[in-house]
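Researcher: Go.
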Amino acid sequence: MGSVLYWSRRYDESLEYLRKAEEMEPGLVGFTESWVIDDDEMKGLHDEAVMATLQLFSDLGLKGWQDRLNAAYRSGGRRAFLETSIKFEESLPDSGCSGYATARINVLLGENDKALEGLNRSLNARCNGLPMIKMDPIFDPLRSDPRFKNMLERLNLGG
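Model: Structure:
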């Protein structure tokens, strides 16, 4: 329910459901946290999103990257944090969806051309998560771009 409310741009309600899910099933490490991070980002609660990301990296045992992200944030703020997040995504084995992951971060950085390049890479690699761009609020800044509309058409999601 938290994810549906996120996609509906009802972030406060989404957070309520996600917190309830965490209470009911504390073993959902890595699942609810990513939705909380997205809700916080969309609400403009950037510091909270950073702290939640750092906690997620800790919970997942990614101490080295947690330290790198924390150092980037302390020295360069949110922009440096997000740029380091891209480096983390690029360090992972390419599943065909790495362009999608970096596109989400590039949109937050206001780097829409880079975001569209990443989405195109994922489209060409047939990333199975790509249809989410139709509803994910993070991609709202791209919706008026003809290249984004073309991508939706290529995914048979309308333009």
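Model: Residues 1-74 form one domain.
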